[in-house]
Design goal:
Length: 387
């Protein structure tokens, strides 16, 4: 039984497309994450880039999560939404001076430096502001996360972080940086990682890198493992909440935590993907000789993941229970890549039927764009939609 069926009468009355968020599932997911990590005293910073809507942020903040940001505007938005600055981390390979200055002025938990040059720049800006700044260094552990190449970030060939061959230089820079205090080491090797042994490998690699850095007299109070835990796009109803316990148990088992060190994580997708759907209406059904197309009013502008990463989101027709047919489900944009799924089994579908594209809570709305001068769709939340 589809959990969205209950809301179809409300969906029928609304202009499509729109994003719909199941707030009860969001709360349950946040609680499951919290329970699993509290057993080990870990700290989580929710990755705002996955979904930065105010009601979503409220749930995250109330669950006690900090914020993981990747732009100056995300830092400011997190603060505006009540995240305490001392729980905000800020990463990114290309921070501007203006963005760094904001982060310095708000005294966030730490700025994650991604290169040895950035150490110099942040130190210079801190000196100019007459202050000392807490930073972490993002390491590039050269690990293959077994995910799509566009969301792989921890390989030597990727632009992120500082590689072990630079550690000598890193140590010199840090020694010379009188206005910085190194508080953490950071890694984030990729996103939508469903192969859990990747995280074991990451922990083991971080253990080695910590040993190596000790030779340079570099020691820290915090270890930040980043985000990356994947969700089940094929079966969102079967696996609405990811196995946080398995993930944190694995970290606890394989990461060597030194005395007085705290472990941090930056989950995004695993907290918000499954609670969101794109709700769209069928505009046309085109029966062809080779294929049948269902043309819906949502497009790649509203959910870019299938076009950009060949992601397969579950597609469900909510209006009828007719016998199944096979369809390519496509959007209205003038691009052949504007396709949500090929050869999808749906009940025989007609103009006006309502379709849900599932697992769109992460990197759906935040990646929406206005190509073709389209409107940005609104969002509705299960706790205040009329049914
Ligand atoms: N920390 C850092 C430094 C990150 O770059 C990211 C995601 C995260 C945490 C959160 O990762 P998550 O737990 O969500 O996997 N647009 C792509 C995903 C890009 C992820 C970018 N970084 C997608 O739709 O799959």
């Amino acid at each position: 039984m589809n959990v969205l069926t209950h809301f179809v009468p409300a969906f029928e009355t609304l202009k499509t497309p729109f994003y719909f968020y199941d707030m009860d599932l969001l709360r349950r997911t946040a609680a499951a994450c919290k329970d699993a990590m509290n057993r080990y005293g870990y700290q989580a910073h929710y990755a705002l880039k996955a979904n930065a809507n105010e009601p979503v942020l409220k749930v995250m903040r109330e669950a006690g999560f900090g914020a993981d940001c990747v732009s100056g505007n995300e830092v400011l938005w997190a603060i505006e939404n009540g995240f305490p600055p001392e729980k905000i981390v800020y990463s990114g390979v290309g921070k501007t001076d203006v963005e760094i200055n904001h982060a310095i002025a708000h005294r966030i938990f730490c700025i994650n430096c991604e290169s040895t040059q950035e150490i110099d720049v942040v130190n210079g800006l801190a000196a100019a502001a007459g202050t000392t700044v807490d930073v972490s260094v993002r390491l590039n552990p050269d690990i293959d996360p077994h995910t799509h190449e566009y969301i792989t970030t921890g390989l030597e060939e990727n632009k992120f972080g500082v590689s072990p061959w630079e550690f000598g230089r890193l140590a010199e820079k840090l020694k010379a940086a009188a206005h910085l205090r190194l508080v953490a080491l950071h890694v984030h090797v990729g996103s939508q990682i469903t192969d859990l042994p990747v995280f074991r490998h990451l922990c083991e690699r971080l253990n080695d890198l910590q040993d190596l850095l000790r030779n340079y007299d570099i020691q820290v109070e915090h270890l930040n493992l980043g985000g990356g835990l994947g969700v089940d796009y094929a079966d969102p109803d079967g696996h609405p909440v990811v196995d946080f316990k398995g993930y944190f148990d694995l970290i606890h088992r394989y990461l060597k935590v030194r005395s007085r060190q705290t472990v941090h994580v930056e989950p995004g997708r695993s907290l918000v993907a499954q609670c969101g759907s794109v709700i769209t209406r069928v505009l046309y059904v085109k029966n062809g000789q080779k294929k049948n197309f269902v043309v819906v009013d949502a497009g790649m502008t509203d959910l870019l993941r299938p076009a950009l990463y060949q992601a397969q989101h579950a597609i469900q027709q909510l209006s009828s229970q007719a016998s199944p047919g096979r369809y390519d489900v496509v959007g209205p944009i003038c691009e052949s890549g504007d396709c949500f799924g090929k050869n999808i089994s749906l009940p025989q579908t007609q103009r006006g039927d309502i379709i849900a594209i599932r697992s769109a809570g992460a990197y759906g709305q935040t990646m929406a764009m206005q190509y073709n001068l389209r409107d940005l769709p609104p969002a509705y939340y299960s706790n205040n939609i009329d049914i």
